[in-house]
Task: structure prediction
Amino acid sequence: MTAKEATITGTNGGSAPLAAVTPAARTALDFGNAWSYAPAPEATDHVRIQPRYELFIGGKWVAPQSGKYFDTTSPSTEQKLAEVAEADERDVDLAVKAARSGYEKYWSKLAPIERGKYVYRIARVMQEKARELSIVETMDGGKPIKESRDIDLPLAAAHFFYYAGWADKLAYAFPGQNPRPLGVAGQVIPWNFPLLMAAWKLAPALAAGNTCVLKPAETTPLSALMLAKIIEECDLPPGVVNIVTGAGATGAAVVGHPGVDKVAFTGSTDVGKRIQKALAGTNKKLTLELGGKAANIVFADAPLDQVVEGVISGIFFNQGHVCCAGSRLLVEESAFEVLLRKLKDRMATLRVGDPLDKNTDVGAINSKMQLDKIRQLVESGEQEGAERFSAPCTLPERGYWFAPTLFTGVSQSHRIAREEIFGPVLSVMTFRTPDEAIEKANNTMYGLSAGVWTDKGSKSFWVAQRLRAGVVWANTYNKFDPSSPFGGYKESGFGREGGRQGLLAYLEVD
Amino acid sequence: MARTKDKNGGASDAGQREEAAAAAFEAPARVGVRKAYKMLVGGQFIRSESGRYRQVSDPMSLGGTKENVPWASRKDVRDAVVVARGAWEGWSGRTAYNRGQILYRLAEMLEARQGELSRALERGGLDAERAAAEVAATIDRTVAFAGWTDKYQSLFASYNPVAGPHFNFTVPEPMGVVGVVAPARPALLGLMGAILPIIASGNVVVALASEADPRTACVLGEALATSDLPGGVINVLTGPAAELLPHLAKHMDVAALDLHGLEPGLLRKAEEAAVGSVKRVRARSLDEAAWMDAAGATSPRWIERFVELKTVWHPAGI
Result:
């Protein structure tokens, strides 16, 4: 049978004449080479990456006191992109002092509308440099260019734009509560959305009148450093934004510094708990945006073809490096077989490979360390008796890759049903009644997000009201907007980012 | 004498003017190109269909050159309402974020025309310092309302905990075409300060500019036309409010009126005419200090006056 015939068989698997002659095993789509794509790489020659980046402290580029630098590499080529300063406690101390002085000398003295205009400037220049930033984001982090270009960058700029507008409206946002800034914010962000997370942290903090010390993740520091250059270009007063690069120890120094009034952290629940403990008794304000193990609930009455797209993007978006990824698929039993077949067919068409290629759907795993963690958890899934399906795709030889994978026969006690994998791995389970779906969906220590798919509006509201999760997507998934608050229940952390509510993380109110 | 050649030139005191008048006429080395002031309606620069005009003086030129500003008619009002109504769907259908970006872009365009707008106000009778302050305040007000486009909803909307298995919420929505009568002063800040909160939520405007300084409104129109604001969202007419407002007030396609600084007789006439289509009318007289006070004049209550509230009931059940 030729590849073309296989395609026809696959899409019409249920029709009588073809089904009669087609063995069940062949019903999966097999495109062979019939649909090969020519490479469509995004040009990188106009992008300037410096060989070395210093620390951005007090409006200046400062060498680390230890003289130490570390390499940041591209996870898709394993090639070094630049070397980046490693800040230790002394550098962090300098950054916090610069932030304090920036707060006292300039930022707290500015009229709110003027503060807002500075933040608007950042949004505008980010829009102007969006393409360059998205390319660097993809090179440094491994995410597909179509995601960094169409999602990370527009959202990051929109976040600055949105919060810029709040700067002069705080009294209206919290009437009668005399909202006032906290002072210096120490912010530690993850590697999955490096620039977007920087925007989520800096924009509300600055608009509310705080100054910042931001620590980007060690595997993805470049876009935050380019943001520092933008902030420099926007003529912000010195010390208002300080960016210190480094690994866990640098982050610990930021969080633990006594001169920091507020700590904001996005990352794993493990580290989040350690930070909460370290801050106990210090009077510092804290917000945490931690892990997730979101349930994506599919009822049999849902439009299944739309569900397939939602489930696929819910778990494979950004290689599954998403805290709110729909990593537990709960399917009503009567729809299980047909949905599973459709999902496997769709997974077979996902294009995995060069993140800079405009056709790529799934890029590189962010680091060797993360790849090892994914492999380990997938192994545990196999050992515990779940059945694995991985999309048939060719993975590049160099770099860190993992084929889109799903598990069936998953029980609630399996590690792959309980632990955050943070990779392109979906655990599929079934349910019979709506109550059972709620029971299973809420059976987790996490509570960041959830999805519900049904053709019946009333059912989606009924489910949404019962899910213990900070964000519920109905007949959609992974949608973000600066005006929409995001954050978790339970061990997924506390505090919200986005919307009017997102300002509260950076304000003292009566 | 060099100064007499400078017809477009800077300020001059009365003494110099007399001296210039006394001197023999001397043709300038370069003849300045004067501007035909027009009204911005539907993104086009138009004269009044009636052909009417009013003369305003230009005290900054030697000899106090007269300039002509269109003087709108009843038909101009009706045409402008039709054009505004046509722009409503597009403007209110845009995302709030997009409206915010467009208003911010407008602030960028106003900033670039700071000098020109200031000069217009000076020619309308302000001293340089006050003119510059009014222009700066107008730009900052534009920035402030650019910020409101996607934020007032979170203040006005509500989730309503009805006693039953329903998801019930209330959201603000724009009204449609809103008629504005700008205060005499401040001519620029009063006009924009009234218009911005109305269009922020997706309404469109037909505005009657200050009669004390109509020329500045025409200059403003040039900035509006070069921003990304779609044609027809802001329509500015220069003309006699006493004559035009009653027609605006009884137009069935106008949803609301925002009236500033009207004398009681005209206000009453407008309010009576508004009854025909049950228009929402807000009328007030703010002094210049109130217009300049950013904290008060950027209150979301300015937006709230020109939105409708829609409540949606949705069952929540299996």
Observations:
- The first helix of chain B runs from residue 2 to 5.
- The CA atoms of residues 264 and 270 of chain B lie 10 Å apart.
- The radius of gyration of chain B is 22 Å.
- Chain B touches chain A at residues 96-97, 100-101, 104, 140, 143-144, 146-151, 153-155, 165, 167, 294-295, 298-300, 314-318 (CB under 8 Å).
